[in-house]
Design goal:
Layout lengths: L1 E7 L9 E3 L4 E4 L3 E10 L7 H17 L2 E2 L14 E5 L4 H11 L6 E11 L4 E5 L18
Antiparallel strand pairs: 1-4, 2-3, 3-8, 4-7, 5-6, 6-7
């Protein structure tokens, strides 16, 4: 197994800039979701070559049956992670050649996956803001309007 690339996930947009506190809201940067591009290679040769192909087959079957991980099926997963997925990645022969060359290894039977939606969120507060109070704006939906 090897990590060959890290990219930013651009599909998700769950930005909530203010997090509630005791008497104010903390303004924080939105989480950055990243994708890890992973290659699984079967390092078996000679008479064991078929064992390597069988190992790759079992790996594909596992991720086909378990394409995502959450607290429900992976209780040791960090509580900050809602869900991550393992997505089969289709690389062209040219792209496979490039990745294998970049890793500095000879080609071996391999399968490529993208581990999606790994969140990175800083707890650093950028600013503080306070809720609006007073005037004719009510914080309770059923409160009478002052005249």
């Amino acid at each position: 197994m090897g990590l060959y690339n890290i990219t930013r996930e651009t599909v998700i947009s769950t930005y909530a800039p203010a997090r509630p506190g005791a008497d104010a809201f903390a303004i924080v940067q939105p989480p950055l979701y990243i994708d890890l591009h992973i290659v699984f290679m079967a390092n078996f040769s000679g008479r064991n070559y078929s064992d390597g192909l069988a190992a790759i087959s079992r790996l594909i079957a596992y991720f086909q049956q378990t394409p995502w991980f959450s607290q429900a099926n992976a209780p040791d997963l960090d509580p900050e992670i809602d869900k991550i997925t393992m997505e089969f990645a289709n690389l062209t022969p040219s792209e496979v050649n490039h990745v294998v060359g970049m890793l500095g290894v000879n080609y071996l039977p391999s399968v490529f996956y993208k581990l999606r939606m790994l969140p990175f969120a800083s707890t650093a507060m950028q600013a503080r803001t306070y809720p609006a109070r007073g005037g004719s704006v009510s914080e309770a939906p059923d409160a009478p309007v002052a005249s």
